[in-house]
Amino acid sequence: EINVRLADAILVNKIGTAAMEDVLEVERNARSVNPDATLVEAASPLFIDDGDALKGKRVLCVEDGPTLTHGGMQYGAAVSGAQKAGAREIVDPRQFAVGEIAETYERYPEIGDLLPAMGYGEQQIADLQETISRAAAGGVEAVAIGTPIDLARLVEIPVPHTRIRYELQVLGSPTLEDVLAPILGG
Predict the structure, then answer these.
(1) From CA 9, how far away is CA 178, in angstroms rounded?
(2) Do residues 41 and 17 lie in contact, with contact meaning Cβ atoms separated by under 8 Å?
């Protein structure tokens, strides 16, 4: 709430996927606590680098761990992209989890059928690598990567894989450039 009260501009995202009544409610709430802020509307469409890598396959979905644990999300870009690409099945990775990944499932059982990338420390990377390798040996045919970074640069993924991500698209006017111009001297 403090951020909204102090903001010069408020970005209202997911315009293309959220219910319009929910978008309007968010905008009304933002205006009620900060009527002087500029509202910028945006969408975050999904981009799949290679949907054919997932189509008809048993897919392991790797998501940003903190989004699942601390953010309380039940799914992210990887699951949405795998479904959109026509994955045959989202594979439950818990049976393949080792080390810190297994500990994460114990602490956050609500994560469910997603593989959380919890961080990029040496042990976390090793445990993620081993979990993915065990999943591939256990019948996973492809990996959907919904992490903020290109996970394939950190770990070897022994089956076809692809990145899936959201990209911000500002809709209409004002744009982010319009809002930031006074601050950036433009």
Answers:
(1) 10
(2) no
